[in-house]
Every structure is written in structure tokens, then in C-alpha cells.
Specification:
The chain is an alpha+beta fold. The protein has two domains: 106 residues, Rossmann fold; 62 residues, no CATH class. Helix content is 28%, strand content 17%. The chain is built from five helices and four strands; from the N terminus they run E-E-H-E-E-H-H-H-H. Strands 2-1-3-4 form a four-stranded antiparallel beta sheet, covered by helices on one side. A hairpin with a 2-residue loop joins strand 1 and strand 2. Helix 3 packs across helix 4. It is globular and about 50 Å long.
Length: 168
């Protein structure tokens, strides 16, 4: 594994020096291309256990994409995402659920996942935190969207919504 004293040269992101303790999260040669642009290019990073870690950088540097890899929302084109030594990019949805239960994430803005539709954003916690079937989840999601007047927006992505729609 390469030296972890840097994360992404163009972004100027840095990490703590490696410790002897196994990291809780390890990214190994992570690569991802979105819309023809290489967003992550061979990223190596250790997130130490029991340490508060901030990932900061310029707009478009790949911070959110990297975080989404860490909780399995996006699968890498190349490389590994290890959580407690397990490559989560190879886990089934059910196995990934148990890993995600240990995560807490905070995003700026409307707290919506930009890579998911309105429907998928509302369904996500029901899929991850309950044992409801897809039919029951669909019924609940559509009901909630109707309550706030967003049933017609269910297939839209957050960047296609007005500010008021995002807040609802």
C-alpha cells in the first residue's frame, strides 16, 4: 500500500500518519469515473479507529463520492473499500445492511443523497432499517410523498428540485 501521508494531491487533502492499530476503514487504490470524469484515481486512505475524521477539499474533489463508497452506496470501478478488514464492495445488500447500521453520516444541504431519486431517498431508511417488503415500502413512500405534494416528483433527483421541494 502506498504512503498515507496524502490523500489526493490535486485537492491538498491530508490524513494522519499511519498507526499500528488496524484502521476501521481502509480505501485501497480506489477508482471511480462519473460522467466521463475520473473522480477518484487510486485513492489510498486509512480512517483510524476511535478518531474524529474530517474529509475536506475543494468542490468537485470527490469527497462525497468517497464517502458514498465508504458506506456502500457506490461500488468502486477498481480498488477496495475495507471496513474492519471486510471488502464491502463484494457484500450482498443484506450483508451491507449490517455494516451500514454502524455508520453515521452528515452531508451539507438538504440531507438527500444526490445519486438517488426522491422516491429512493424516502425509501432508503425503510429498506435499511426495517423488515418491510418492497410492496409495503412502496405504499408508505407514495403515501408520504402525496402528503407533502411530491408524488409527481418521485422520479426526480435532488438537483432537479426547488429549495422548497427539498425541504419537504
Amino acid at each position: 500500500m502506498s504512503d498515507n501521508s496524502w490523500l489526493c494531491e490535486p485537492c491538498g487533502l491530508e490524513t494522519l500518519p499511519a498507526s499500528d492499530e488496524e484502521p476501521v476503514i481502509r480505501l485501497v487504490d480506489l477508482e471511480k469515473t462519473l460522467d466521463g470524469k475520473k473522480v477518484l484515481d487510486g485513492v489510498n486512505l486509512d480512517i483510524p479507529r476511535k478518531r474524529i475524521t474530517a474529509i475536506i477539499g475543494l468542490s468537485g474533489a470527490g469527497k462525497s463520492v468517497m464517502l458514498k463508497h465508504m458506506n456502500g452506496l457506490i461500488r468502486p470501478e477498481r480498488g477496495q473499500v475495507l471496513v474492519d478488514g471486510v471488502d464491502i464492495s463484494r457484500l450482498s445488500r443484506k450483508e451491507l445492511y449490517h455494516v451500514r447500521r454502524r455508520f453515521g453520516m452528515l452531508f451539507q444541504g438538504g440531507a438527500l443523497f444526490d445519486s438517488l431519486t426522491v422516491y429512493e431517498n424516502v425509501a432508503f431508511p425503510l429498506q435499511e432499517k426495517t423488515n418491510l417488503g418492497e410492496g409495503e415500502i412502496r405504499e408508505r413512500v407514495l403515501s408520504r410523498l402525496a402528503q407533502v405534494g411530491l408524488e409527481e416528483a418521485r422520479g426526480k433527483y435532488p438537483d432537479e428540485l426547488s429549495g422548497g421541494m427539498v425541504r419537504r
